[in-house]
Each structure stands twice: as structure tokens, then as C-alpha cells.
Amino acid sequence: QVQLVESGGGLVQAGNSLKLSCAASGNTFRMYTMGWFRQAPRKEREFVGATSWSGVTYYADSVKGRFTISRDNAKDTVYLQMNSLKPEDTAVYYCAADLNSLPVKWSTWGQGTQVTVSS
Question: For the segment 3-24, what is each residue's pLDDT rounded down to a tens digit?
Fold first, then answer.
């Protein structure tokens, strides 16, 4: 089972960009579907997007066209490029991993990284 560590969070002004990274341990990273989630204060955690082991990606409607997920299997890392950020994107961002291609319950989670978008 992989272990996940997110990085790249911070404070950014609305309209700007930020790129998050999620580094995985272990040598089976390429087999995992990798997902990004976020949780804003006083809200439930929500799905942001995911990438399959083959690189197929899918996104929540709220971020489609602004966020891009990519993965580098040689570096055991998945990325979340966030453009045109809005104050409502403020949240703790988590990456997750699962061996299922369309996970319902993700098996492994990172510790999260805070993203704050100022208006």
C-alpha cells in the first residue's frame, strides 16, 4: 500500500495559479488511480478530480477547465495544477489512492495541504 504526502499549498490571490504535488512511496504507484479532494471550513470533503493508472482524467464540474491533474509514474507523483483560482477554492486539499479504476471508497489518503485564495 502506498503512502501519500501532499505539498505545494499556500496563499495566493484570486486569478492566480498554484500547483500541488502528491508524492507516493512504494513501487506500485503506477497501478493506482489517484484522486484529489478538498474540504473547506464547515463543509464536507468533495471530489476534485482523478487520474487512472493509464492517465485518463476526470473532474468535478466546479473545477473543469481550470484544474488539471497529471501524473509522473517515474517520480511516483501526481500533480494538481490549479489556474484561475477563486476564493471558493479555499480548502484543505487531499490526495488519495486506490487500486480500483473507479473508486467508491478510497483506500489511502495524504495528510492534506492548505490552499487559501484571497479576493
Answer: 999 999 999 999 999 999 999 9
Average pLDDT over residues 38-42: 96
**Structure-block grid coordinates of residue 62:** 466546479
Closest Cα to residue 24, out of 110, 112, 113?
110
Q: What is the spatial distance between Cα 83 and Cα 59, in angstroms, rounded to a whole number?
A: 14
Cell (9 digits) for 107: 483506500
Would you tell me how many other CB atoms lie within 10 Å of the CB of residue 110? 21
**φ/ψ bin of 61: left (φ > 0), alpha (ψ from -120 to 50), beta (otherwise):** alpha
88 sits in the region (left: phi over 0; alpha: psi -120 to 50; else beta) called alpha
Within 1-119, where are the H helices?
none
pLDDT tens across 86-108, in order?
A: 999 999 999 999 998 888 899 99
Angle subtended at Cα 14 by Cα 9 and Cα 15, rounded to the nearest 5 degrees? 105
What pLDDT sits at residue 102?
85
